[in-house]
Amino acid sequence: MLWTSEIEISKSALEHNFQFIKNRLGKNVQFSSVVKGNAYGHGIEVFVPLAENCGVNHFSVFSADEALRVQKSTLTNPTILIMGMLDNNQLEWAIKNGIEFFVFELDRLKQTVFTAKRVGIPAKVHIEVETGMNRTGFSKKEIPEVMNLLKQNMGNLEFKGLCTHFAGAESIANFHRIKSQKGVYRRVQNRFINNGLTPQICHTACSAAMLRYPKTQMDLVRVGILQYGFFPNREALIYYLAKQKELEFPLERLISWKSKVMSMKVVKAGEFVGYGTSFLANTEMKIATIPIGYSHGFSRSLSNRGRVLIRGFRVSVVGNVNMNMMCVDVTNVGNVEKGDEVVLIGRQGDLEISVASFSENSTQLNYELLTRLPGDIPRKIVS
Ligand SMILES: *Cc1c(COP(=O)(O)O)cnc(C)c1O
User: Fold this and answer.
1) For 141, which of 77, 193, 221, 346 is 20 to 30 Å away at the CA?
2) What pTM did the predictor assign?
C-alpha cells in the first residue's frame, strides 16, 4: 500500500440501506441518490457505479464538476441533477449533455433560455422556490416573471421540476419553520398549476424530511446521508426508533477507514508526548504512532480525545493530532507492533468506532467528517 490509510466501502451495507429507504417511500416516489461532496466522502467514482448496480438511475450533485465526475463514472445513462452552482459559461455543456439543473435566479433563467436557443436543445430546468430557508430560490415577487419566461420559452425549456429545500427537518425545534415552508411551497405550486404550468415532478424532501414528514416525498426524494448508513442527526434517529418501537440501529455504515501502526516508542513517566505540553505521561507508557493527521481528515479537535482500534482494543489519542500523524496510548495492549492494523472508523473484533463517536468527541457533524476524508485516500469495494 502506497497510501497511509485505506477506505473500504461495503456493497451489502448499501443494499441494506437502499432497502430501508425503499420501504419508507410512498408508491411511485422516485429516488435520487445525492452524491455531492464526493459522495459524502465515499468517492464518486466508486460509489456511483455501485449504486447503479443496486438499481439507482438518478443522481444529484452540487456543481458542474461533480456532474462531470458522475457522468464519467456511470455504467448506465442516469439522470444527473445539479442542485447548486452552475456558471453561465457551463450552461452550454449542461444542456448539450442533458444534465438537469436547479434554477433560482432570473439571470440564470434568462441565460438558460438564451443558451438553449443557441444550442437548439431544450434545457431541463427545476425551478427552485424560496419557501423560508433563505439560501437559494425564487422569491414570491419573482414568480410572475419566472412564469412568463417559462410560458414564452416552452420550446427551449423543459419544466422538469418544481422544488425547494427545508431548513433543518431533522430537528423538532424547526417544526414551525418547516410547516410554514410546506405551506409556502403548496401555494407556489398551485400558482404555477393555475397558470397552466405543471412541472413534470415536484420534489422537496431530503433524508430527514422523507422520514419525519412523509408527505414531503411527493414525486421524488433527494436522499444523501441515509444511503451511506447515517441519520441526519441523533434526534432524527431517536425519533425514528421511538416511532417504530425499535431498539436496533436500522442502517449499516458503508465506510471503514483503516491505517497501520507506523512506529512504537516507550515514554518515561514525567515526559510530555508530542508538541507542547498537552499530554503528560504519569507513568511509563507505550506509544504507537499512526500515520494519520488532520491533513487526512482526522480533526485536530480530537487531540487527547479521539479513539482508534488496535488489536481489538479501544485506545486513546494522546497529545495533539498533528498534520500527518498522531500518537495513541497502547500501554495496556499486549505486543503491539509496527504494521498492526489500526481502525479509525469501523469494526475490529467485537469493537466498533462509529462516525457518531467523532461528533460526540468534537464539534464535527457526521456530514462534515465524511466529506473531509481526502479524495486521494484509495477506496476499495468490499462485499
Ligand atoms: C444535501 C442536499 C440534500 C440531501 O440531504 P441529506 O440530509 O443528506 O439527505 C437534498 N437536497 C438538497 C438541496 C441538498 O443540498
Assistant:
1) 221
2) 0.94
